[in-house]
Predict the structure.
Amino acid sequence: MSRDIIALDNLSKSYGVDEVVKGVSFTLSPGESVALLGHNGAGKTTLMKLMLGLIRPNGGTVSVLGAEPGSRAGRAARRDIGFLPESVAFQGSMTGSELLRYYARLKRAPLKQCTELLERVGLTAAAKKRIKTYSKGMRQRLGLAQALLGDPKLLLLDEPTTGLDPASRQSFYATLHRLTEEGVSVLLSSHALTEVEAQTDRVAIMNDGVLVACGTLAELRQAAELPVHIEVQVGSGEDAATVAAMDRSALRINNHAVDFNCRPSRKMALVRQIAALGGVVQDMEIHAPSLDALYAHFRDQEKRP
């Protein structure tokens, strides 16, 4: 029996003639954190709705916590899922504490958790204030608190850091890190590529309903074979010419620096050659392809005939 928290096999979903999810296969393991990336309309939110059992697929299978979401077993398993939608809409006349207690009763979670969760998301001071007085970031943090009710085994988070300031984002990812260490699985969708680059175990990229890539950053870089950028600082134009002559991938040269864009397979050999020059080289920085570059590569690759 599979231990996967989520298992999608050739999953598809259509609305009339519009196919919004096309043959997606994907798994999520216990304690794993995966970022789901894609443009608006790529199919990310539809995938989450399929996992929650809010809509049914037209083809393929979906298993969440060992059950089909729309089945009786799936409805029972949903108590172990925490969900934060992209746009949270709460009753503004309620206080933060009242709202969280309301959701705790719906989920049959201990009411004592409410105080602990409000403190965890930094809303203790605002617990007795009306939600209509909350900023967007505060409402987002309240949404995260309700998603954590009942100690879920799986978190589905749709654009969870929208409206959060840098300090709140840092706190949010620290919370997620602690949860995954405890065995909680996390699937979050985001447009903030730079933000999730160092915060998740794997990255899944959607484009027009298709899962075009999925893997660790190292795996995606290996598959994409995008060039590695190396910046070499030198002391004179003569030194720059010496360095630039080492490889035809030299791009930019001036009296102080030489830039290379080399193939990944050539990187280590070139680094050794540069280091062997000794005092000619004052400094060197190596930049692997960013998640932004990888996202653009796989998205554009899917469009090519």
